[in-house]
Amino acid sequence: TCKMPDKGPTWLDCLMKIDREDKSSRLFGMYMKVEAPLHVYERGIVEFNLTNAIWEHRMTFPDSQIVFPHGHPFKHHDADGEYFYFAGGMPNTRVPATVKDILDPTRYEAYTCLTQSNKVLPVVRRDNKNELSFSWTTNGPVLSDGLAQKLIQAGKLAPEEMPGLIDIETGKRIYAHHGSVYYNAYLCKYVMVISQSMGRSM
């Protein structure tokens, strides 16, 4: 948590460290203002002031924002450039790893097959083989479990197209609640650790 004005507690997530040329660092995070019963009514970006040891407001996401970061970020450089990927269950949101982009709401992208529309549900994108067409975009929400269920009920998505992980021992679907992804130098691979939503211990 961090101290922020207005009612309710302030949650803190998505801590991002930017290294500068003089070897100093800047630390950013996403804040969420919460009111009962756990309703998030505002999201934005804060920066940690090292001198005063406080979080300072830098940007508020507009009410029209479609893509939000969520979860522990990891930095990865690929053909598109260097990005922070946010592993809030699955690493399907990202933002370019620069101060300018972190503070720009229009630079956050989702890896999704959905396009936002003026209707109740977003449009499902498909290719010429009628398979789901995923890409990085700023104009569509993440295909979450809850949204997938609504699209299935509306006949826009087949049950077997619902995203998620499969338990290799039981064949049952695993619903990711929260997690983290980091590079393992020994394995030379990225490793994801998640907590399961509604798992067998419930």
How does this structure look, described?
The protein is mainly beta and 202 residues long. The chain is built from 2 helices and 15 strands. The chain has helices at residues 99-102, 145-153; strands spanning 10-19, 25-35, 39-49, 54-60, 72-78, 81-87, 93-96, 109-112, 114-115, 123-124, 135-137, 165-166, 173-174, 176-184, 189-196. The strands form 5 sheets. A 5-stranded antiparallel beta sheet has the order 5-6-7-8-11, with no helix packed on it. A 4-stranded antiparallel beta sheet has the order 1-2-3-4, with no helix packed on it. Strands 9-10 form a two-stranded antiparallel ribbon. A hairpin with a 4-residue loop joins strand 14 (176-184) and strand 15. 23% of the residues are buried. The mean pLDDT is 91.
